[in-house]
Write a structure and sequence with these properties.
Structural class: alpha/beta
Order of helices and strands: HEHEHEHEHHHEHHHEHEH
CATH superfamily of the largest domain: Nitrogenase molybdenum iron protein domain
Distance between the termini: 99 Å
Number of strands: 7
Number of helices: 12
CATH class of the largest domain: Alpha Beta
CATH topology of the largest domain: Rossmann fold
Helix content: 40-55%
Strand content: 5-15%
Largest sheet: 4 strands, parallel
Strand order of the largest sheet: 2-1-3-4
Radius of gyration: 26 Å
Oligomer: single chain
Amino acid sequence: MNKRTHLLSLCLLTICTLLILGGCANQSKKSSSDKLNVVSTLDFYGETAKAVLGKNGTVTSLIDNPNIDPHDFESTTKTAKQTANADVIIRNGAGYDDWIKKLSDKKSLSAARLMNVKDGQNEHLWYNPETMSRLADELVNVFSKKMPSKKAEFKQNAAAYKKKVARLNSELEKIRAERIEKPVAVSEPVFDYSLEKMGYKVANAHFAKAVEEESDPSYTDIKNLQNRIKRKEIAFFVYNVQSDGTTVKNIVNLCRKHDIPVVKVTETLPEGKNYFNWLQSEYRQIAEIEK
């Protein structure tokens, strides 16, 4: 090997070594700074994701405004980009937020699938606190597959979150033990999972379903409900205050006229509240009635 060839070989070797070392450094830097990017259709599921994820990534909730109807949500270029860049997507399922499928073909984590709830069944799954516990456990599995070194941390975070959920369940059990031995009526089936946990039966399911589907309840359904109210045959009326139908408002006025308590609930997370104090404020309305 002549001197010129030897020098050229040394130069090439040096360049290769620098490239390899640089690549290792970049890979090390990438590994140490990797964070998960999580997107949730609804803010209360985003809250669960943040609790489990901790400092290991960011969570974006596409709907974080109580005035947005999740059924009618319309995506923007911004939301499409957020979804496209997501490592994990969380949705309610059961037909509630199927619009997310148009934004991304990535497999999403469905709360309905976790709870074995099908399209056409009651989609308001967050009113069953068990949904949030199962979601937290499933997120531990999902996040751990993507960040194995953080599995213990995810499990610890989920355990702390589930302790809060347990307190909600304790409140439901206390209400169940002291419940009034009468059925209840509802404006629509938003709150039904919680009512079921409390041990209450809904007396006007057909009326409520019509309101949910934005159609007019039948004359018979309205008359039957009115008579139950006048005869004080229901313990209370659950009113989704985000409903703006005249029929429902007339029922609320009739309840007040005949001293039937009205429990106010919402379908979406109110501004300034988190999942826990939102549900607690609604549960405690019923606890006050039972005293």
